[in-house]
Amino acid sequence: MPIVPRPPAADSASVSVPARPAKPAYAVRLAFAILSPLARPRPATGMLLDMESGSRPACSLAQEGQHVRSLGKLIGLAAALFGGYFIFTHYEIQGLERLNLKPRAESPGTPATTPVGGPPRVEGGAETITIASFNIQVFGQAKLAKPEVMQVLAHAVRRFDVIAVQEVRSKTQDLIPKFLALINADGARYDYAISPPIGRTVSKEQYVFIFDTNRIELDRESLYVVDDPDDLLHREPLVAGFRVRGPAPHEAFTFTLVNIHTDPDEVAAELNALDDVYRAVQRDGRGEDDVILLGDLNADDRNLGQLGALSNITWAISGVATNTRGTKLYDNLIFQQNATVEYTGRSGVLNLMQEYGLTMDQALEVSDHLPVWAEFNVREGAVGGRVAGRPIETPR
Question: Which of 29, 90, 270, 390 is 20 to 30 A from 55 via CA?
Answer without folding.
Answer: 29
